[in-house]
Amino acid sequence: MGRILVTGASGNVGKYVAEYVLKNEQQVTVAGVHTKVLQDMFGEDPNARIVHFDFTDSKTYAEALQDVETVFIMRPPHLGNPADLYPFIDALKDSGHIKLVSFLSLIGIEHNPVPPHYKIEKYIEKSNVPYCHIRPSFFMQNISGVHAFEIKHFNNIVVPVKKALTSFIDAEDIGEITAKVLCEPEKHQNNAYSITGGQAIDYYEVAMILSEILGRKIQYSNPSPRLAKEYWLTIRGLDKEYATVMEMLYMMTRLGTAKKVTTTFHDVMGKNPRTFKEFAHKNIKAWE
User: Fold this and answer.
1) Which of 9, 55, 62, 158 has its CB surrounded by the most CB atoms within 10 Å?
2) Closest CA to 120 of 177, 166, 167, 74
């Protein structure tokens, strides 16, 4: 088969998509704006081609799509306008030889038109390019990434969802299943896969697991949405658009949209996804 294009290949999910595509002995084009980082990550693999790519610069499309038959789309967090991705989707349609495009979306997005992922999914479907949307639940990496600061320095989790349940999934599991989809495009065309961990837990249990593994008391502060956003903006200094998207996603969680547990990962991969406890043991340095 032709090459597999992975956009956002230095990110949480994209790097695992590319790694597992290479483990499947397929040729991959790893694309992004930080080509030096990509060179450090994939430069030694003869099956990896590294290209500069920017969704907002159509001049970067041709090189990225050279010899490509399947595509992984990761929306950069700073591109909050769905239309920023439309020209690239149009280019996929115009190429005439794309067997599958797999867009990293959100679980439950089919019922929520507010986040940009909804309109991007619909635009892909209308393009008539074969697709397989990847709709994961919340990444475990959110706890070791954007929320690690409070855990590490204040032994606190600042997430405004009360006792709502979340079926956390490891980004590595998302990358592995996405790579399999991209390597077997005919088997997965015109589907949408909701991918979760094997159980749904609340943030009080997250705090309990972290307390056990770290050997110190971690608390879940359960702030109001208003206070959480104010903290993200004024104390953490997070980008306003990023904080607004995060606010919307956690509002969805409060409404119960993140508690769904699916068997999709096991159905496709033939094994169980990682548990949060397994993830925490593996990533303990993020909070020490």
Assistant:
1) 9
2) 74
Q: Is the separation of the CB atoms in 61 and 91 below 8 Å? A: yes
- What is the arithmetic mean of pLDDT over 81-110? 95
Which residues touch 181 (CB under 8 Å, ≥6 apart)? 100, 102, 132, 134, 187, 188, 193, 268
Q: Where are the domains of the chain?
A: 3-137+170-196+260-273
- The tokens for 104 are 């990293």
What is the pLDDT, as a whole number, of residue 102? 98
Mean pLDDT along residues 123-136: 97
Query: Is the pTM higher than 0.90?
Result: yes
**How far apart, in whole angstroms, are the C-alpha atoms of residue 94 and residue 100?**
14
Residue 79 pLDDT exceeds 80: yes
Q: Any idea what DSSP says for residue 60?
A: G
Q: CB 206: neighbour CB atoms within 10 A?
A: 22
CATH assignment of 3-137+170-196+260-273?
3.40.50.720
Angle of helix 171-183 relative to helix 14-23, nearest 10 degrees, comes to 50
